[in-house]
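User:
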Amino acid sequence: MLLDPRLVVTHKEMPLYSTAWENRPAGDFPACFADAMALQESAQPQQLDWTFRIDFPYRLEKPSHGRLLVFATNEYQIIDQTKFTGRPTAEAFKDPDTYFITPSLWSAKAFYENGVAPERVWVIPHGVDEADFRPTDTTEREAYRRQVGLREEDHLFLHVGAGTFNKGLDVLLMAFAAHCKRYPNTRLLVKGHDALYGNAITNATRSPTFRLPAHVPFPYDRVIYVGRDLAQTQIDRMYRVSDSYLSPYRAEGFNMPVLEALVHGLPLVTTHGGSTDDFVGAFDHVDLVRGHAGLLPDTRRFLEPDVVQLLKLINELPGQKRVAPDALERSAQRGIRKFTWQAIVDAILMRLLTT
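Assistant: Predicted structure:
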């Protein structure tokens, strides 16, 4: 947005959601971030056309002038009143000058059902940096895998998530434990975020939904866990050493790691019927797991992944001949064109400048 001559952009940084959180930005942002990182807080101009809020909780108070655009996601397809502040949601939802931007049709449904006019709900997906996300060529992949002790015959599954109920890591670990009894050359790499959410494996295995039969031990020696903060280059390397990505989620507003895995050229297994339906169809080598509609006591909606079908698909991946790198690259390059940050910003600007 800073590069668009039609716009004058000012910025105000908002406090972190939790006092326990620390603001420790990484030091390896891409060069294209420089102007945004250098943008200092400035006095609000006398005239504003739009106030665009991207923070949490979602603040609904009206700006002094101009229209309001609020980014929000509804992972469980309900309006969670604890996530909104500033004024009653019923009032904001009826306000013709208050708009919402959300990254999936799954998330948008909650706004529609609560009376927000469809033209005031902008469904615009997240994006990726085209320069950073690309498939890995064979030589590069082999070099990275040697560095972490993976053999050519080993198959490494990847999952990124906090281990909370909506992420479905408990379902994945149950399926992977059963898988390990027959397949000795597979590993599962799980990337959590301990600083914010605690240990993802602990979160998942302590969930009442996690149950293993007595004859199926937990495969401690086959699960690689990384819970610390990683630099962007380390995150990138994590995708590049992996063979496929697994995300049997229950409820997501978008599911960013799934998109990142696809544009890295990784074959994918994920839940059918949720937010990822909006974009996985743009890529090849995607297998979908049936999601059965569920409802929590507080009316939150979710999809329960079919663990039997998930296990079947996981079992099939190591035995499949590795997809040729050029086929993965064609899929990634075809799909990424729709999800570059430039394409996403263009979609936002089209709305901002014509509404």
